[in-house]
């Protein structure tokens, strides 16, 4: 996901403490597709769709409001101000690692398994932090630190729509857990 966003967009997400997990890349999706996939996956922000008329921003709510023009739309749509846990998951079958934030790890796991996220249905939790105020910011730092290990997930078809799985990493799960712990300690 980081590779698809501009530096300005990443800085905006960090400032708002929005997690990458909450962003869906919607390039090429119709409005109805975007809404359906965002709802199904619990995503708050759509990125990469048509730019806003005022300033050409690309981050919008599910309903199409530009969150960069009006940050109040985020507060309305999001859990940005709530605490959440940072997690690291590992899939034995693919060897991939996924990092993210959630307020409900059981729901997140069930959702990722049922989507076969990253073509894996055996995601297991290898690290779960306590609830942290700055979980979104830590997640972005973690993605940045793991960037060189990003796995090209490509595209998969689910429920008739194309979904992108670019949030997995090909790295040792212990390495990702170590990084997560260090970033949390530092924050
Ligand atoms: Zn805008």
Automatic annotation (TrEMBL):
<protein>
    <submittedName>
        <fullName>GIY-YIG nuclease family protein</fullName>
    </submittedName>
</protein>
<dbReference type="Pfam" id="PF10544">
    <property type="entry name" value="T5orf172"/>
</dbReference>
<feature type="domain" description="Bacteriophage T5 Orf172 DNA-binding">
    <location>
        <begin position="86"/>
        <end position="178"/>
    </location>
</feature>
<dbReference type="InterPro" id="IPR018306">
    <property type="entry name" value="Phage_T5_Orf172_DNA-bd"/>
</dbReference>
